[in-house]
Amino acid sequence: MKINFHYEHSGIYSQTSHLLAANKLFYIFKEKYPEIEFEIINLLHSRINPEIGQFCKFKNNTLSFACIIIENPENKKYFLISHMDKLGCVASWDLENCVEIFAAVGGHAEDFHYAPCPIPYTPISPPLYVHTWEIIAEKYYHQNLPKITPERPFFMSLVPYLFREYIHNDPRFDSHAAKIPYEEFIKIFGGHSIVIDINSVAEISNRTMDAFALGCALLRPKFTLKFHNELIPDFHFAAVKCDDISNYKELADAYIERFEELKKDKDLVHFLSVNGRKWYEENVTLESHINILNKVINIEKLF
Fold first, then answer.
1. Nearest one of 18, 29, 168 to 106, comparing CA atoms
2. Do 6 and 118 belong to one domain?
3. For residue 49, is pLDDT > 70?
4. Under a CB-based contact definition with an 8 Å cutoff, are residues 97 and 78 in contact?
């Protein structure tokens, strides 16, 4: 019996959290299933040599770094662990042989209403993009520095788009179009008792995990995306009260209204920050992400 792990084992993305998790999971499974022969196939090479069965679609596909494929090479059955911004990208894959999809992000169909993607998946959890970010965030969290209550919601993105562009031109928001070193960003972001996140191409962005990691109270829309352990509105984060998030004026107003409510309720801010941090510890850290994968993946389904 043999199982192949396809992922980018080397290259510029190999130090991202989800690929470090893939490497760790490979060795966990080798020990867990000694009767099975496990092999790593570097997915990076698939762009150069696409002759690897049903995965030849990765030729010239820069999304391959966002995928981990666990395959039985004899019957071609496989699992997909997806960190792609949109799960809908797999619609053109060989889904007949795909036994199960495990998705960390991208469980929506489009970027305006964020309706659920029709492709079924088993939810896992999204780690911070790079493991060094987790180390930096942990350092600042444990310094327990005082936080200020900001006058306006702070947000920073390199190139504002969609609703991010809308608030960038709304003076009620403290919005910045810039890219700064992560540690510098964390110093600013983590110095606020209340922070916001805005839906990204993947719906959830790293700012949600940053907020939880740093013990900040997070304000953001409810999720379409499902998680292994549910993120509960108004328990783990403050939910923006807006029925139509495609209406940017209404959505901006709802952000400001809820933000002003939070500024007046220090007990709720503390409650959200504690619960968000606990969810982070149980779902987002590299260790917890690996534990969830080890729990939900049943390798026997591939035989």
1. 18
2. yes
3. no
4. yes
